Amino acid sequence: MAAGIGSRISRHLNGQPKCCVRIGDIELIRYTVELLNKKAITDIAIVTGYSESFIVDSLKGLEYKSYKNNFYDVTNSIASTWFAQDFLEDNDDYIIMNGDVFIEEKVVDLLLKEETSPLFLSDSSRIEDADYKFQWKNNKLVKFGKELSVEETTGEYVGIAKINKNDISFMKKRLNELISEQKHNYWWEDIFYRSLDQKNVFIKDINGLFWAEVDYIEDYERIKIYLERDK
Length: 231
Known about the structure:
By secondary structure, this protein is α+β, with helices and mostly antiparallel strands. The chain has helices at about 30-40, 50-60, 75-85, 105-115, 170-180, 190-195, 215-230; strands at about 20-25, 25, 45-50, 65-70, 95, 100-105, 120-125, 135, 140-145, 155-165, 200-205, 210-215. It has a single domain (about 10-230), classed as Spore Coat Polysaccharide Biosynthesis Protein SpsA, Chain A. The relative contact order is 0.18. The mean pLDDT is about 95.
């Protein structure tokens, strides 16, 4: 998912999308695609919108399918998912992630081993500073949202999920229902958040693994420090 503007850090980006910040010698989105390719994940779709040309330039020489949300400034990621829904087929499993999230290699290894679905990644080490908050019990999502109190929060949502092939038909059905209801401002994850009465959402805690979402300049600095330490 790489269609958004990223208003909180935009003044530092000179018009480029958050996913195009430099991570070492390459852009974040290129780092991510190359990491997935390294793990034999080569069937990749990217949904663009804001400043698409930066993303195209960043990914030169790499293979991927491209979809575009031309309404990125008035919709959210559920609309991006709707535009890319033809990519989702019920004969394969999918990792869905926000383009502005940096992850270390072990996060992909963990995801590939997991069989439960839908599976959302969360970090129990981030409570007080959490942005989008989860409460889970027995590894199942109970509450979600930015407004959860510290006492209610079990961890922060990482911005990555794994959806197995058996859940794709349900996902696309709910996607189209919500779009028909004009819920264009929803996140794609709301497909599952707002279906908890029908289907469990499973949580995998990645406490101890490194990840960062590039929302603020401080997040970017954390990534640079991690990369220096990991050399």
